[in-house]
Write a structure and sequence with these properties.
Order of helices and strands: EHEHEHEHHEHHEHHHH
Mean pLDDT: 85
Number of helices: 11
Distance between the termini: 55 Å
Radius of gyration: 19 Å
Number of strands: 6
Structural class: alpha/beta
Low-confidence stretches: 1-7, 74-82, 145-157
């Protein structure tokens, strides 16, 4: 296995997925896509931190690949993790490592949906420069407990070094996920349209309608390693809200506030960054830029023609 090499597509008839995260957003989308593509799958019943329960799931399902979409992100937002630290560590750190180890023992590739909210703009990656953080860069954002625990699966000096030894793991860094379902409260667009005020900062984001199918293709290609799992480029909050107004609600309005003003109303700081998606783009040349992806997969399907 290797993060750069394509080791050959697997025959669709030979695929069978075991998915963790039945009640989650990404886990639910994975199941629907498997149904559409005719890929057999089952949702895991085991707790990620409970090794015997994971082994029982694998024995019962006999999968070819395992998908982990069960990480704790907090509801309604990441501030939840500030007051639920043990639960966050148990799933995002202990659970991820346990699942990776069980999968390796069984010779299975693990597709692990992680977070890209572990970086923030700095002097080497200035806002607006177009210089994004690469897969091998050291995370530099520790503004919230959520990011710290998720970063433990990525920080080179800690758990990421351990996961790198697991040649069977494919880590996908997801950021500010967006989908065409504008009723979903987890959707970044849905969130910011409901805020009284928003900051206006360009960010890398993950357009799920385009990228979740690509994650299934990555499993078929047996890809491993760390991947910045975002659409190429960045888009600002204001640009998204202006698209929302133009395509969905012509009467929509919004207000901005500064990072300093935002800091007064949130429990923990938020990560703002650009991730370099060139590795993913090289493997999947059809991958659209973030603004083109937003229009094709999110706003065109929700376009309301005003009479």
């Amino acid at each position: 296995m290797g993060s750069e090499a394509n080791n050959g597509d697997q025959n669709q008839n030979q695929l069978k997925f075991l998915i963790y995260g039945r009640t989650g957003w990404i886990g639910g989308l994975l199941g629907k896509l498997c149904d559409q593509q005719g890929i057999p799958y089952a949702y895991g019943d085991g707790r990620l931190e409970n090794r015997p329960s994971l082994e029982a799931d694998i024995a019962a399902v006999s999968p070819t690949h395992v998908f982990n979409a069960a990480g704790v992100t907090g509801r309604p937002n990441v501030d939840w993790c500030e007051s639920h630290k043990v639960e966050t560590i148990r799933t995002n750190v202990v659970g991820t490592l346990t699942l990776a180890d069980v999968c390796r023992q069984r010779g299975l590739i693990l597709i692990n949906y992680a977070t890209g909210c572990i970086f923030e703009y700095d002097s080497s990656h200035p806002l607006g420069s177009g210089v994004g953080f690469k897969e091998e860069d050291t995370p530099n954002f520790i503004g919230s407990f959520y990011s710290k625990t998720k970063a433990m699966v990525h920080i080179i000096s800690l758990v990421e070094d351990l996961l790198k030894n697991y040649e069977n793991v494919c880590t996908l860094r997801v950021r500010m996920p967006i989908s065409s379902d504008l009723t979903n409260p987890r959707n970044f667009i849905t969130k910011i349209t409901r805020y009284e005020k928003v900051v206006n900062i360009p960010n890398s984001m993950t357009i799920l309608d385009e990228l979740i199918p690509i994650s299934i293709e990555m499993a078929k290609r047996n890809l491993t390693g760390i991947w910045n799992f975002t659409s190429p480029g960045v888009v600002s909050h204001n640009e998204i809200l202006e698209m929302y107004r133009d395509y969905v609600d012509p009467n929509f309005t919004y207000k901005n506030f500064t990072l300093e003003e935002q800091a007064k109303v949130i429990v923990a700081p938020r990560s703002n960054n650009e991730l370099d998606a060139s590795k993913l783009k090289k493997e999947f040349p059809q991958l659209l830029s973030i603004k083109d992806s937003l229009i094709k997969y999110v706003f065109d399907p929700n376009h309301k023609v005003v009479a």
